[in-house]
Write a sequence for this structure.
């Protein structure tokens, strides 16, 4: 157990903050509600970007960039949208600053005729541009993604999970038919699900949000929900079928293949730096960070061990050859820690804190025995490999680590998901932080508000492909044909 990390069992919230601080992932910024993402944290975000960007492009999407500032009048064009984001908007009202005569203070100057909103999301400015770019069905589908920063005025913040400014990607697509747009919405939900499971080693439940939980301005919202180690839910990505709402708000019409004028159909979808928080709360332990190998900047961390100067070159030379061969043969990146200012013991402890998936050690005795020692971060299992075979074994071991992390997270999800059949049973389950309740639900948006007020839990997702099942809503007693996931959430 790392001495500066509070154990999860003692204070989970403090543990989370401690891991971020000690692993040097992020820090609080001097701007209220904002964070500074440090190099260790940003490397994870770069890896997320790299893999997701490839997946987006493999499905036909291209990247563009839109302005940070949005005219306030744009937000007012779509009623649900403005109602959903109005309280979170930050405004730019002046064009500059000037000195107060005789003082060091500054004051605003040049009041703008119309205020600008710092983007809380980009639907409005993007659809204002789509009006200029779309005239005919030949211009469709339009499949654009943006990597950007977002600002939402948050009063209660937590690093990565909820900050005023955060990084994300937002896809915005336009289609000729509702069917194409719905297909796109579900396709991108599938991309997120695949990424979460294959790269983050995190199982998720995919499905639709209820009416009360959907995105402002959407017809339907779909989500992937994950269970963290404290058994709370975390919404990790959303995909929205927007219907023709934004097209009508911004008068985006096209000539269809029947020579008729129609409004286009829209989607939007996004994930954010919240995914880093999800990785921490899914995999990290009381000794620090654990990074899934497929998202690690350095999947392999190498520590040469020697006492005498004449041992140094031989040990480092042999280890560097292993690392070079890993990169050349399997494109696996590594870092060799040859700091003379730190002992091997210090390096081992630091490597655990920072979450490198696999540590390799090589000393004079190992070299004489033609062997290499490896340690798996997630379970601390040590393995001795023949030096000549290490390069070909390490990729397989990294894959095993990736699968072990996923299997362990699946076990957490399965062991803490339970069918619940009455409201009293639900309240007891939620009060005990039991996890995911699978319960019948046929409530309204007002019923959802009551549920949250009385239990602090919400309907997280209507699971996709869930078997049909007749029952009674646990809150209202109305007829229900499905179970939903109800849980406390971040």
């Amino acid at each position: 157990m790392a001495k500066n990390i509070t154990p999860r069992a003692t204070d989970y919230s403090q543990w989370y903050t401690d891991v971020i601080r000690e692993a040097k992932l992020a820090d609080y910024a001097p701007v209220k509600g904002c964070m500074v993402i440090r190099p260790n944290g940003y490397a994870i975000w770069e890896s997320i970007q790299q893999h997701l960007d490839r997946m987006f492009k493999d499905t036909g999407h291209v990247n563009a960039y839109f302005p940070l500032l949005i005219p306030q009048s744009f937000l007012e064009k779509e009623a649900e949208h403005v109602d959903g984001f109005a309280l979170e908007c930050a405004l730019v009202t002046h064009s500059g600053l000037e000195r107060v005569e005789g003082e060091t203070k500054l004051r605003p100057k040049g009041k703008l005729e119309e205020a600008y909103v710092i983007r809380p999301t980009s639907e409005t400015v993007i659809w204002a541009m789509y009006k200029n770019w779309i005239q005919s069905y030949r211009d469709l589908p339009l499949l654009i993604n943006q990597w950007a920063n977002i600002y939402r005025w948050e009063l209660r913040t937590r690093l990565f999970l909820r900050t005023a400014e955060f990084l994300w990607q937002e896809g915005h697509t336009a289609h000729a038919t509702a069917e194409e747009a719905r297909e796109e919405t579900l396709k991108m939900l599938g991309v997120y699900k695949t990424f979460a499971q294959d790269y983050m080693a995190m199982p998720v439940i995919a499905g639709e949000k209820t009416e009360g939980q959907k995105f402002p301005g959407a017809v339907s919202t779909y989500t992937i929900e994950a269970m963290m180690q404290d058994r709370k839910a975390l919404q990790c990505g959303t995909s929205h079928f927007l219907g023709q709402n934004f097209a009508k708000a911004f008068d985006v019409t096209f000539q269809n293949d029947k020579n008729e004028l129609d409004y286009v159909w829209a989607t939007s979808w996004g994930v954010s730096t919240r995914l880093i928080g999800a990785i921490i709360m899914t995999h990290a332990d009381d000794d620090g960070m654990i990074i899934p190998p497929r998202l690690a900047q350095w999947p392999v961390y190498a520590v040469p061990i020697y006492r005498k100067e004449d041992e140094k070159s031989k040990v480092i030379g042999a280890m560097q050859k292993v690392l070079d061969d890993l990169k050349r043969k399997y494109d696996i990146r590594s870092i060799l820690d040859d700091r003379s200012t730190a002992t091997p013991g210090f390096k081992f402890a630091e490597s655990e804190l920072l979450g490198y998936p696999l540590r390799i050690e090589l000393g004079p005795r190992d070299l004489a025995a033609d062997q290499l020692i490896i340690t798996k971060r997630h379970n601390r299992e040590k393995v001795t490999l023949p030096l000549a075979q290490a390069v070909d074994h390490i990729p397989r071991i990294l894959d095993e680590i990736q699968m072990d992390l996923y299997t362990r997270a699946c076990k957490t999800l399965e062991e803490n998901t339970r069918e619940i059949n009455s409201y009293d049973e639900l309240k007891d389950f939620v009060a005990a932080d039991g996890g995911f309740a699978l319960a019948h639900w046929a409530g309204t948006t007002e019923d959802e508000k009551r549920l949250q007020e009385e239990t602090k839990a919400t309907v997280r997702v209507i699971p996709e492909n869930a078997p049909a099942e007749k029952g009674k809503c646990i809150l209202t007693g109305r007829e229900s044909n499905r179970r939903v996931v109800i849980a406390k959430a971040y």
Q: What stands out?
A: The radius of gyration is 26 Å. Residues 390-415 form the longest helix (26 residues). The mean pLDDT is 95.
